[in-house]
Amino acid sequence: MAAAGSGKAYAPEFYYDTYNPVWQNRHRVYSYSLQWTQMNPDAVDRIVAYRLGIRQAGQQRWWEQEIKINGNIQKGELITYNLTELIKPEAYEVRLTPLTKFGEGDSTIRVIKYSAPVNPHLREFHCGFEDGNICLFTQDDTDNFDWTKQSTATRNTKYTPNTGPNADRSGSKEGFYMYIETSRPRLEGEKARLLSPVFSIAPKNPYGPTNTAYCFSFFYHMYGQHI
């Protein structure tokens, strides 16, 4: 008789709201932040790794590697892995297979495509707060309190009602954003500060004009009786 939880793992489910691509870092290559959740992770033995297969669209050969998983995967947990050194403007087929100590689970396959920026001379960084490391932002240790990562679907009911957005900037109630509560117990003058990653801008762009302008933009939402 088989032990409970020793069945084949269910297929992972890819998350499709990531920008295409999330990072364009050099003239000939791009990277992509692959994201997925695991269907019914508690129904079988613990998933210890994923086998990642990737091949250029139209090619026969898969390149494979293992992605180790530490600890238990929670239901709905968003798992992120960065694919690097992808060649512009090629599309790629990605195959993801969960592995338990009993063997392989069901695979899922998707295609990721390169989309050129509006200005091909710009190096762009796109990121959403679905990313497990909140887009490389960090909490300031010297402020009074922290920003909280949440979505409309996971919103804590202890927060003041009728504040905060009804969805993320794409209109999704499952999409994440960074939030601060400005009512009690907050006091006037208190600060919560997120520090952005440092963007290294070369003084001369070898692939475009030497006087290229750079722009940092983000979406924000302010709502409440006293805003």
TrEMBL record:
The superkingdom listed in its UniProt entry is Eukaryota
Pfam families reported for this sequence = MAM
Residue intervals of the Fibronectin type-III domain: 17-118
InterPro entries, per database record: ConA-like_dom_sf (IPR013320), FN3_dom (IPR003961), FN3_sf (IPR036116), Ig-like_fold (IPR013783), MAM_dom (IPR000998), MAM_domain-containing (IPR051560)
Q: Which gene encodes it?
A: LOC103609134
Domain called MAM: residue spans? 125-227
Q: Which organism is it from?
A: Galeopterus variegatus
Q: What is this protein called?
A: MAM domain-containing glycosylphosphatidylinositol anchor protein 2
